[in-house]
User: Fold these one by one.
Assistant:
Number 1:
Amino acid sequence: MQQSDWLSQKEFSLNESNAFWTKEAEKLDWITSWKTLQSGSFNTGDIKWFEEGELNVCYNCVDRHLDKYADKTALIWEGDSPDDYKAISFDTLHKQVMRFANVLKKIGVKKGDVVCIYLPLILEAPIAMLACARIGAIHSVIFAGFSPQSIEDRVNDAASKFIITADGGFRGGKKVALKENVDIAIKNCPTVEKVLVVEHAKNDIQLEHGRDYLYHLLANEVGEQCDVEPMNAEDPLFILYTSGSTGKPKGVVHTTAGYLLYASLTHREIFGVRENDVYWCTADVGWITGHSYVVYGPLANRTTTLIYEGVPCYPAKSRFFDIVDKYQVNIFYTAPTAIRALQAEGDEAVLANTSRDSLRVLGSVGEPINREAWYWYHDKVGKSNCSIVDTWWQTETGGIMISPGFAHKQKPGSAMKSFLGIEAAILNKDTSKEISGALSAHDYGALAIKKPWPGMMRTLWGDHERYMDTYFNVYKGYYYPGDGAYRDQEGDIWISGRLDDIISIAGHRIGTAEVESVIDSHHAVAETAVIGIPDAIKGEVIYAYVTLERDSIPTDQLKKDIIAWVRKTYGPIATIKVIQWTDELPKTRSGKIMRRILRKIAHFEEAQIGDVSTLADPECVPALIEGRIDYR
Ligand code: WTA
């Protein structure tokens, strides 16, 4: 789509929104048509789309392509070792999903049951998800890096009777245990009746008689035909847990028709997908990005989708781009944290021996992409030939909400435009009034969405009150995602980071992402996280945790240089009081920096840090405490 087409589409989508959503919904395959396009409101929290309509998500992602595209490659799997790979056609996917669905039925899974999926990134992960969708079971994918405690919390919250897992996985040349974690977790999960185990790593595992079943044995006992279950448009498709700023994880619930429509529409339009593209989103299916942009969006659009079980730099630092070359990937979608990590390894090791000429679109998701990473991604990875597509969205939104898309001019660091059919507003945090004019990086408001959209979550599993309080009762009449944002002179949106990550220095509100981006752009720095610490005169000042590039030497002079750099680049109001060098920042397994932990450490409140088991490397916490600088 040209930019001019996109703009007229945008106008149509907002001015005639019913016609727009109707046109898009007609691109799905329905069993029964809907009567009511949309009902409910943000105030009442009872939003429904396409009520009375019936369809099946698996049918839309697989069966409907078989007529003409049965032999087209649906999924490519690349294992941890470059010697392990497989590709399957839509026809094979269809057969494997039907067999998997029959196995689920055999162990007693019924429509409406919650099935937990705890699998490595192997073909059986998307197959299991689609098999659930086929028979109307609600999946709850638990990221395979999560601890037994996380499994226990999620299984119990949804009172799930079924878990699908594997005998293990591979990451960076090492075997990972999965079944053992399930065994520990379900000691405290009274609802679990059956555990289905996929063989993959050939780990030694224990099977409990009458509870645990090997998938491949049951697969031999069932047929290969399985009809699709007609589902109501508003039947839940899946639950996905995400952490809130407080309390236990929230079970975000997405439903059938609206979610599928929104995942497929955004995938098609934002990345500009073409029929013969090979598309690779590096996310794990344990995250929403893996749901919407590894499985449902791409498969509904008949896109050949790559999944990779391993880690970015194994066995070679160039592995990501070796894979791009190996499969001639056209669209690549990853997170800024991965981009920065690769950049820090050096161009010679990461890029020199790969061509990357097949790439056309480079996506980014998860946090604001800082200018330095943006330029490296654009100039080096994409050789200045690719569009950089930043994408702002959340587990709760189901799909991308704000993005330049491939059709727009490039503006490093700005997420730019709300998507077709989506109206974003920026609210004054004190008065709750919409701000219409331009703001600035130092003066931003609360991002909000003005009207219901099909892909939005419908509730939090078992806690509708929390749903209302977190998202709809903060600013009445709006969906409130919890992020700050501002618009520039051209009306483009910039995300300034979570509103709970704001530092207020001498009355100036400063977004952590903004300062981090400036520090990151210093040539010696690889990655940064900043938080506010109390200051008698300014209210708050900055405590910066800084990871240096491999070849940089941590000296006091370098600290002074960085402080001067920030004064110069950002402005003197961004007062950095402390820089602590660190080899590693505390990150969740999806790569998000846990500022909550950094804040506790810098505030000398480590006794209240609490559970660190969701961190990729919990060991970095004692090291951070050890290296803390006493500024008091
Ligand atoms: C942040 C991931 C800036 C944001 C899809 C949001 C971003 C939260 C971006 C949701 C981006 C995600 N620019 N910030 N492009 N993408 N975020 O639920 O704070 O894991 O609220 O969904 O990540 O994270 P979640």
Number 2:
Amino acid sequence: MSGYSEMAGRAGSDEDLWPLYARIYRDSQEAIMITDRHAHIIQVNASFSRITGYEEREVVGLTPSVLKSDCQPPEFYARMWAAIHLDGKWKGEIWNRRKNGEVYPQWLSISAVKDEEGALQYYMAMFLDLTEYKSAASKLRLHAQVFSHAGEGIMITDTELRILSVNRAFTAVTGYTEAEAGGRTPALLRSGRHGRDFYARMWESLREHGRWQGEIWNRRKDGELYPEFLSITTLRDEKGNVTNYIGMFKDITERKQTEDKLKYLAHYDSLTGLPNRALLQDMLQDVTDGCGRSGERLGVLFIDLDRFKSVNDSMGHDAGDKVLRQMGERLKRAVRAEHIVSRLGGDEFIVVLRGLKRADEALETARRVTELLERPFDGADNEIYMTASIGISLYPDHGHDLESLMRHADLAMYEAKSQGTGPQVFNEGISSAFLRKLRLERELRFAVERGELRLVYQPQVGLESGRLEGMESLLRWRHPELGMIPPSEFIPIAEETGLIREIGEWALGEACRQLGVWVREAREVPAIAVNLSGRQFMAPDLADTIRDIVRKAGCEPRQIVLEITESFGIVDMEAVIAALRELKSAGFRIAIDDFGKGYSALGYLKQLPIDILKIDKSFLTELTTDPKSEALTRAIIQMAQGMALRVIAEGVETHAQMARLRELRCEIAQGYYIDRPMPAGELEAGYLKAPRAASGERS
Ligand code: C2E
Ligand code: CA
Ligand code: CA
């Protein structure tokens, strides 16, 4: 160390201490660097080399800027040097660069060393590497920050559970500040909602596993209860002794609310707020259990709104929803609190009547429900009149569980709907009717291929001329075991199952075939009317199909009248109109069947490309007895004539009706008074002129 004795000598200090100074200089943990007054490095110690990576010989003669890192701006150094000139010293944190390029923080102090006269001799710089210290300190700072800024509430207690520290989130959730909570135990937050067992299990888990977590109800400072998700951790020292407990929690009020909401949604119908099927199932379990003991009965009313679909379709879903909500309200008000009102979905409601003494009580309630519907419902912008069909089943008479009670009430409801005579209590007859329907449904699938279907023809006769003006073809099904099955029974089944498409095509083909036979025999045949079900219009290619069938049979479209009913029961009226226009322009004639029976078609009447209007049977029945029916019939006939439509009165059964129709200038009549629908052969014999070629008098 060349400069050592020189410096020591020039310093002129107590010479006995020199060896000590030398040792301190050499062994110091602090790096020491000495420069001359022009800041050229004269000496450095071992710690300097250890920290910077430079050997003494590498830096002697250089300036300290060899260590500069660019981390400080020029002003920083300017201020540093100004301080040294003024005060003779500077200290602070500075980032420097090691020989290997690494930048590191150091704690630096620089002193100017002066002689007795105060003349500047040297500069002495001492510094410490702060790298490790820094990372330890920043870790602590980080921990502190995490603690205070954490989104979760944190509470640290000692082994006695006295609260030592809490963070901001703790205060935000509980309302207690650190000052208020400090020194107290977490019992401060107890809600009283959990029993002793709960806390015992918590401590057991803490003892065994060192941690516990779960949901817990606590109480805020303002008294409000709230649910939190809490996890408690035990802290131990190196020897394994418990030193602290740390509780971290999250307020889960909101999550709980969503959970409750979900639970609600799973059990209640969102439209009406009524219990849904799942909840009904649960509730009924308890109810039937109770019934079994008390010997009381239970009534299940299955309520189905009639024609609800057409309300939805014609007035919009908002109107439909409004009706359903009002229906729910009315039902709730109509029954006592101990009964259950539930919505199954769609337009189906269930009312469960509890504690019935007599079976009749169920029927009485059902009648009251029917009366509820006498008042109109508020639609979106008009009043809507609704009716409902109600089926009733009783516990224990018709079943022991909700499933079978509902099925039987449902069957009774269908019966009520088809009978139209008010609420129906389930009975075995209904069950067998249902079984018959199931069987017909199955058998109908094979009716066409087994050749069980036939067409009969009913003549339509001119009221003035008395001549055959047309005929309507009507389906007949003779089942080998069940015998004749009326179309009123199997057509709805065919419509429900979609079989109507195949059956309808068969009927049209058969009518054409028969027509072909008569034409080939050169008989004078009027057009044949064929019935089309609304359901058939659901096939987008209906018009093409019909044209094909007629063409293949060698017939002309003008020989066929297509009868459609006023109430299609279908949604897409536009599509129906389009198909009818296509058929009409292909040459078919279109008749509106059962006119007057339906509800809304008057508006469409102008748009429909029709040729013939068939007055519904129901008008005829009352034509001669009810002046209102007569007035209506008269109006329909006049309207039809105004629109240049042909009018056919259907269901004419008496001479008086015939006479009245003549007076009203109705053109054509069809009905039992004239003739029943009959097989082709009979019609041929009775109505179709013998072929001209075969008629002797003509030649
Ligand atoms: P609809 O089209 O209104 O047919 C007229 C019904 O009235 C026929 O009943 C006919 O037998 C009956 N009828 C005729 N004259 C009188 C009368 O003076 N008094 C009474 N009370 N009834 C009379 P049917 O043959 O039982 O057919 C019932 C319904 O079945 C038909 O009503 C029609 O909607 C449907 N239907 C029958 N054949 C077919 C078919 O080929 N296709 C389709 N889609 N439906 C058919
Ligand atoms: Ca018809
Ligand atoms: Ca009819």
